[in-house]
Specification:
globular
């Protein structure tokens, strides 16, 4: 059974920082790309940051220079360090694991963690 469990969300003031973590189980973690997505009320889910199994990263333009994604293969965990947070970063943040196996894509999601940026 695959589980992705997020933690670290909460309420923070503008300009503050939060660190999200996602613990994975039930998958061969090293073989998966890991990503963080977010969904704000009334908006579609969007990619925030992604890190491949080889460690390559990509970020949404809106978070470049402020957010950093990292993975710890030994702990089967992926983290998102969020600095200089803005009210527009308020959303539910979801952890994602994906990989291709031949023509099949394996795609798993966590339950989400709320991040609220407000004074």
């Amino acid at each position: 059974q695959v589980q992705l469990v997020e933690s670290g969300g909460g309420l923070v003031q503008p300009g503050g920082s939060l660190r999200l973590s996602c613990a994975a189980s039930g998958i061969k973690f090293n073989s998966y790309a890991m990503g963080w997505y977010r969904q704000a009320p009334g908006k579609q889910r969007e990619l925030v940051a992604r890190i491949t199994s080889a460690g390559s990263t990509n970020y949404a333009d809106a978070v470049k220079g402020r957010f950093t994604i990292s993975r710890d293969n030994a702990k089967a965990a992926v983290n998102l360090q969020m600095n200089s947070l803005k009210p527009e970063d308020t959303a539910v943040y979801y952890c994602n694991a994906d990989r291709w196996w031949g023509v099949n894509k394996y795609d798993y999601w966590g339950q989400g963690t709320q991040v609220t940026v407000s004074s």
